[in-house]
Amino acid sequence: MRLFESHRVNSWEPDIIEVESLDEAVHIIHVSSDSLDLDLNTADAILSGIEELEDSEIDLEFQDAIVVTNDTLKSIYSHVYTGVRNSGEFRGLPIIEDNHLAPDPTILPKLLHQFETESLITTVDDLVDWYWDYTTLCPFRLGNYVVGSIILSAISCFLQGNYLVEVKEGVHYD
After folding, report:
1. How far apart are alpha carbons 129 and 53 in whole angstroms?
2. pTM (2 decimals)?
3. For 8-20, what is each residue's pLDDT tens digit?
4. In sequence order, what are the residues at sequence separation of 6 or more whose Cβ sits closer than 8 angstroms to the Cβ of residue 150?
5. Percent composition of the chain: helix, strand, coil (DSSP 3-state, to 5)
6. Nearest to residue 107, comparing CAs of 91, 130, 119?
7. What's the rounded Cα separation, in Å, for the pair 65 and 105?
8. How many CA atoms lie within 13 A of 70 on its CB side?
9. Are 66 and 155 in contact (CB under 8 A)?
10. How many CB atoms lie within 10 A of CB 81?
11. Which distant-in-sequence residues (6+ apart) come within 8 Å of 33 by Cβ?
12. Is 19 in a helix, a strand, or coil?
């Protein structure tokens, strides 16, 4: 269930594909980056997420759900973007990302609370809806795609054994 449809003026669907390997997922996430540190931090964050899910006592057959907390979002951001000023802080400024005006930062804390408490993931369809809502909120000033893609890849690997990633329009992935 998508929570924030009213916060998107234009309809939008992410172009999500399945890839088999972690290297492929990281390459798609960072296709335009020359930073080995960013690639390694992203791969490490995905693997850590999978490990945490496997170590958890989540049993989806008994209606347990995966919940991505706001602290988890901040932690992933800080892990990937080490040394970046204000790393892991939610944005306090308006932003436009991919032709989408993200919700006003004055209401962002309320929306993030709702997102954390109501976005329960038990299936891949729930995960895709989670990703849609996450990209609608754009909680960080920069790096929203990377953080969202890490979570998308880690949880999809836990749920189905392969990695889901969003393919950005107009980007060449050779």
Report:
1. 19
2. 0.91
3. 988 889 999 999 9
4. 29, 42, 45, 46, 49, 76, 80
5. 50, 10, 40
6. 91
7. 28
8. 18
9. yes
10. 20
11. 39
12. strand
